[in-house]
Write a structure and sequence with these properties.
This protein has about 200 residues and is α/β, with parallel strands linked by helices. The protein is built from nine helices and five strands, in the order βαβααααββαααβα.
């Protein structure tokens, strides 16, 4: 089985590519969904995060307010690193567990969808790395519209991630998502063919 690592900067359209892959019947392990699960009340990561960042990050129903937590960590690199040190090992264990489950089903392909694929070193377990790319101007515009935040806050969030130049160096293939969605899907289809058949049609 080949493990494909799918990543991209915030608001690059990685989720659009991920949904397309799911629609084609492929197994996608979504690191963001896992991170939401580990934040559930009573989970070990939940307890550790609340202990580290205080009860002010909680909603009235005691769930973690991810927006509030985001505002804290995206304005302080040390706090972001602390949060990552708590959550990344727990997320990674769950990713490995799910890969093992898919492996037992004799599948050809498994996709690990993770915004922080390179920052977290999870890319080291992947056979192929795909990077969803948009230019920075488009990225800022989409992030402002999506999260209803200021341009300054959008830039802070983008800058908190590994630079695009570094990601490009670590990637095997680039999916340019700056144009029409049809063009993005065409690129994904070509890359899937390369991953499954070595580029040869069966």
């Amino acid at each position: 089985m080949k493990i494909i690592g799918l990543t991209g900067g915030i608001a690059s359209g990685k989720s659009t590519v991920s949904k397309y892959l799911i629609s084609k019947g492929l197994d996608v392990i979504d690191a963001d969904l896992i991170s939401r699960d580990i934040y559930k009340v009573g989970e070990i990561a939940y307890k550790m995060v609340v202990q580290e960042f205080g009860k002010e990050i909680l909603n009235d129903d005691l769930t973690i307010n991810r927006k509030k937590l985001g505002q804290i960590v995206f304005n302080n690199i040390q706090k972001l690193e602390k949060l990552n040190r708590i959550t990344h090992p727990i997320i990674f264990e769950e990713i490995k567990k799910r890969i093992d489950e898919i492996l037992k089903m004799n599948k050809k392909i498994c996709i690990v969808d993770a915004a922080l694929l390179f920052e977290s070193d999870w890319y080291k377990i992947c056979d192929i790395k795909w990077l969803v790319y948009v230019d920075k101007k488009t990225q800022i515009k989409r992030l402002v519209e999506r999260d209803k935040i200021s341009e300054a806050d959008a830039i802070k969030r983008i800058d908190a991630q590994m630079s695009l130049e570094q990601k490009l160096k670590l990637s095997d293939f680039i999916i340019n998502n700056s144009g029409e969605i049809r063009y993005t899907y065409e690129q994904v289809d070509i890359l899937l063919n390369i991953a499954i058949n070595g580029g040869h049609n069966e």
